[in-house]
Amino acid sequence: MVDIGRLTPADRADWQVLFEGYNTFYERTLAPELFDRAWTAFQADTRMHALGAKVDGKLVGITHFLVHASTTAPDVCYLQDLFTAPEARGRGVARALIAAVTEWARDHECSRVYWSTHQDNTTARRLYDKVALNRGFILYQISL
Where does the N-acetyltransferase domain start and stop, copy by copy (predicted)? Predict the structure, then answer.
């Protein structure tokens, strides 16, 4: 059974391990102050939000998301990060986290939830193709 809920101060160390795993997957290294900044924002739960997935009381998955305005619809929810511990994959953790963010967004009157992933992330894309519609957009970025 997967239990989804807000992250609590007791989850801080396990959250950071998972978030480090997420960033390693995308070949990024974050400065310690960015972990602290994100954690503080998640605890405030105003601008940025986070949920955790626990199996047998152990944090095994995380998701981070935020709401922003849209020019063509009511506010939208961007699911920015999603990561499941390797030992918990294939057990419905990511699906449960996506469902929880979707429910949260519906409760907050968002018009949609969306996210992006790398084109080579075939494992995650198998799930994403089952729970959401790939509208074919390509993401461009300018780093500052």
Answer: 2-144
What range does the domain containing 102 cover? 2-131
Buried b / exposed e over 53-84, threshold 16 CB at 10 Å, is: bbbeeebbbbbbbebeeeeeeeebbbbebbbb
Centre a 10 Å sphere on the Cβ of residue 41 and count the other Cβ atoms it contains.
16
Instruction: Give percent of the chain with pLDDT exceeding 70.
Output: 100
- Strand order of the sheet with strand 58-68? 2-6, 48-55, 58-68, 76-84, 113-114
CA distance to 30, 42, 59, 68, 112, per residue, from 93 (Å): 25, 20, 10, 25, 21
- Report the CATH number that the domain containing residue 115 is assigned in CATH: 3.40.630.30
Q: State how far the Cα of 29 lies from the Cα of 107, in Å rounded to an integer.
A: 34
Residue 12 pLDDT: 98
The total number of structural domains that make up the chain: 1
pTM above 0.90, yes or no: yes
* Angstrom distance (rounded) from CA 131 to CA 122: 14
CB hemisphere CA count around 29 (13 angstroms): 0
